[in-house]
Specification:
Length: 328
């Protein structure tokens, strides 16, 4: 190849794309989890635990591919950018040992309070069914704790061996929303089906929406039994990891928020799953709530309707009783 050798091309393919972007394209990376980054300009390009994956193309990508296919450089210029014309690494991507990662606090769950009365009361005010709350607590997915002196409920995500790998905290009286340090976003909160082996998965932005959906099922009697996964936001990291661990899933319903961000992200996730060869067999639907911004708002509107209907029936019954008393 004129201008570059086969050895240089091989070096360029093995160059560290993460180091290149952090050095020469600062600001294009967005951290979305532990050792997980997303490209701001090309959000289907994701770095996850040591490798890059181009979701819209359904394949891995290396530094040389990036400069040629995304930045439009020709082969010679791309190779010289990464390893230099002399065959030595121009910016030490290929030859330098990786920088040691800064120490991170090991993941551990916050200390649980023995009594969860405050948390249960909070969730009931949000409309969550008592049976749903109790099941979460029995499964070790939910408990009450304190963070910096503030009462919080803790939503726990567990791996296939039932080991806690993720937790997020939600203030019971304030606005705190925070992941516990060291949490692995791949194992986000998931409310499991009653019977194992389900092929259906419902996806939400937050745990409270997943529990609201389960409550609505009880209220309306839906015949559905599947997993309810919280993304902890809009990043698809938890969803992709869940589908990798559960190849039996055949249907995914995206219950994202009914706002611009939720609708746009739901469409992006749907496209991601359709274009990834691993998930093409899965049927994907987008189902924002028809009332309210999210499924907790939808639940509270439904409960208000039920309460209103009960009040109307009581008033009607009282009027009938008065009429009957007057006619006797």
């Amino acid at each position: 190849m004129p201008g570059v050798s086969k050895e240089q091309i091989a070096q360029a393919r093995n160059a560290d794309l993460l180091a290149y972007l952090q050095t020469y394209e600062r600001g294009v990376l967005k951290r979305v989890g532990p050792d997980t980054y997303r490209h701001r300009e090309h959000d289907s390009l994701v770095y996850h635990h040591g490798y890059w994956y181009w979701n819209s193309r359904g394949r891995k990508i290396n530094a040389l591919d990036y400069l040629i296919e995304i930045r439009g450089q020709n082969l010679v210029d791309a190779v010289n950018t990464l390893v230099g014309g002399s065959g030595q690494s121009a910016v030490s991507y290929a030859s330098a040992p990786p920088k040691p990662k800064p120490p991170t606090k090991p993941f551990s769950l916050p200390w649980a309070k023995r009594c969860a009365t405050f948390m249960v009361s909070y969730l009931q005010r949000r409309g969550i069914n008592t049976d749903v709350i109790s099941r979460c607590m029995r499964l070790g997915l939910l408990y009450e704790a304190r963070h910096n002196g503030e009462a919080v409920c803790v939503f726990v995500g567990r791996d296939d061996e039932n080991k806690a790998r993720f937790a997020c905290m939600r203030s019971l009286a304030g606005n705190l929303k925070k992941d516990v340090s060291g949490s692995d976003k791949r194992f986000s909160f998931c409310y499991p089906p009653q019977r194992p082996g389900s092929q259906q998965l419902a996806v939400f932005e937050a745990p409270i929406d997943a529990l609201s959906h389960a409550t609505l099922q009880k209220l309306e009697g839906w015949k559905w039994d599947g997993y309810r996964l919280s993304l902890g936001g809009t990043s698809p990291v938890a969803l992709v990891s869940f589908l990798e661990r559960h190849p039996e899933i055949r249907r995914v319903a995206l219950y994202m928020d009914n706002d611009l961000a939720g609708i746009v992200n739901a469409r992006k996730i749907k496209t991601l799953l359709r274009t990834d060869p691993r998930f093409r067999r899965i049927r994907v639907s987008v189902n924002p709530p028809r009332t309210g911004k999210d499924y907790n708002e939808k639940l509270q509107i439904k409960l208000q309707e039920i309460q209103g209907n009960r009040q109307c029936r009581r008033e009607k019954q009282a009027a009938i009783s008065i009429y009957e008393d007057q006619t006797i």
